[in-house]
Automatic annotation (TrEMBL):
The lineage of its organism: Bacteria, Bacillati, Actinomycetota, Actinomycetes, Micrococcales. Pfam families: Sdh_cyt. InterPro entries: SQR/QFR_C/D, SuccDH_FuR_B_TM-su. One of its GO terms (cellular component) is membrane. It comes from the Bacteria. The chain crosses the membrane at residues 26-49, 80-101, 113-132. One of its GO terms (molecular function) is metal ion binding. It is found in: Membrane. Keywords: Heme, Iron, Membrane, Metal-binding, Transmembrane, Transmembrane helix. This is Succinate dehydrogenase.
Length: 150
């Protein structure tokens, strides 16, 4: 009769704290796919309206842009395009920094510059979209476009 090994349970691996947290990298990966598809729709819609309808590229001037930015629909469209493109691009560059910046100090500097550029661009772009006024009151007449006098 052969001796059998006692039935002893294998030691449990220590519980990893990371498995109990939210998986931000998974959400970032999912966001990149979803925002990429939505950006394709937004960008091709933008290009179609600006280049294929009406007189094509000849119609794009200050009055055309002023007309688009006065519409809440196009403000929302442009805002979505700006925010999604900036978040999508920032997340992509952040991933590249994580992959290729070997030193922690380099990584911190690059990510800080990236987040600063993101913040400035999104803030200024959002302000332009919502505060654009082609005919500001009190401006000299010789500086105003012709559409302000119609």
């Amino acid at each position: 009769m052969a001796a059998t090994a006692p039935d002893i349970a294998a030691p449990r691996a220590p519980r990893n704290r990371r498995t109990t947290r939210t998986n931000w990298e998974l959400y970032g990966w999912l966001f990149m796919r979803a925002s990429g598809v939505l950006l394709l729709i937004l960008i091709f819609g933008h290009l179609f309206v600006n280049l294929m309808t009406g007189d094509g590229i000849q119609q794009i001037d200050f009055a055309f842009v002023a007309g688009k930015l006065s519409s809440p629909f196009w403000q929302t469209w442009d805002l979505l395009m700006l925010w999604l493109a900036m978040i999508h691009g920032t997340n992509g560059v952040r991933t590249i920094i994580n992959d290729y910046a070997e030193r922690i100090g380099t990584r911190v500097v690059l990510k800080s510059a990236l987040y600063l550029a993101f913040t400035i661009t999104v803030t200024l772009g959002t302000l332009v979209i919502f505060t654009f006024d082609p005919c500001p009151p009190g401006s000299p007449d010789d500086l105003l476009p012709a559409l302000c006098f119609d």
